[in-house]
Amino acid sequence: MSGTGTGVADPALLEDRLRRHHRRCLPALSRLRLVARSGLGTGVDVRAATAEVMAELRAAEAILLGTLSGSVRREALAHFLACRVNRLTIVAEHAAATASAGDLPALRRLLYQFHALAEAMWKVQLGLRTPDLGPSEVRTFLPTPPRSKSRRWV
Fold first, then answer.
1. Report field, pTM of the whole predicted structure over 0.85
2. With contact defined as beta carbons under 8 Å apart, do 95 and 110 qualify?
3. With b meaning 16 or more CB within 10 Å and e meaning fewer, what string describes 10-19?
């Protein structure tokens, strides 16, 4: 087994496709934030918006895993993304049930949690690079912030 993928050869094309899916789910994420702020939303509204976000995340996941077909990284990445999608699905189901029950404080907490998990998932998916890129082109997910000189660890 080689360490290279056989999917999309052009990294710019891959990133463009992933960003397109990300842009498609932004309206649904915005609707969920509005529901969380206003409390005006039913279980059907919440379920539709979370399903839209999940569909775009799964499409982006399929693209990523397709680019890594034949790679030694594929199975590990597939497991990692599946665990994140599973957690997001659980939160989405709880949010829809909570919206149907009318529990606004719990709904807010769950919708903010869903939003944070979805954004984290997008950061992971958009931050991944295909193995054929050189080390100078690989970017990290979370840059280490510079430490101030006045702060010392004890």
1. no
2. yes
3. eeeebeebbe
